[in-house]
Amino acid sequence: MLHKFILLIFFIPSFALASAIDAVKKNKIASDDAHAICVVLDSYDMIPLSEPCKVSVKTNSIDLSMDTNSKQAREYCVAVVMFAEKGEFEDLKYRNWKVRIYSPYSGNRTISQCNF
Predict the structure, then answer these.
(1) Residue 71 has pLDDT above 90, yes or no
(2) Pairing status of strand 110-115 against strand 61-65
(3) Coil, strand, or helix at residue 45?
(4) Among candidates 41, 40, 86, 81, which has minimal Cα distance to 64?
(5) In this structure, what is the dihedral angle of CA atoms 50, 80, 59, 107, given to the nearest 10 degrees?
(6) With bands split at pLDDT 50, 70 and 90, how would you rate the model's confidence at 28?
(7) Among residues 58, 65, 64, which one has the least CA distance to residue 30?
């Protein structure tokens, strides 16, 4: 019985560590996907950005700044999510990432936000 307890002591922390490492790897993959989307958006002028695309790992978001109104921002927001879904960036969805759009005139307030 004591041997089983000792084995549990060694395996439980290993399992917990493996789960933590797996979570970090998955978030890194999602972050890599977000950076890849930003590179595409910045490189190909797919949408009219007023600043380069930014990725925030802290808030799990792709942050875009556009000189537009909230209605158009919502359309662009949905378009970015659809683009990501076609590119099979599913880690963004499962890791609760989002697109946040700001206007240069909105300060720190979003004018649109979409979840993956």
Answers:
(1) yes
(2) unpaired
(3) coil
(4) 41
(5) 30
(6) low
(7) 58
Helix (H, G, I), strand (E, B) or coil at 67: coil
Distance CA 95, CA 92 (A): 5
Question: Which DSSP symbol is given to 54?
Answer: E
Which amino acid type is present at position 113? Q
Calpha distance 32→29 (Å, rounded): 5
If you write DSSP's letter for every residue of 71-106 in order, what string do you get?
HHHHHHHHHHHHHHHHTT-HHHHHTT-EEEEE-TTS
Q: Which residues of 21-40 are buried (b: 16+ CB within 10 A; e: fewer)?
A: eeeeeeeebbbebbeebbee
Q: Which two tokens stand for residue 18?
A: 């493996």
111 burial via Cβ count (<10 Å: 0-12, 13-18, 19+): buried
pLDDT of 22 over the 70 cut: no
Q: Are 97 and 62 in contact (CB under 8 A)?
A: yes
pTM over 0.85: no
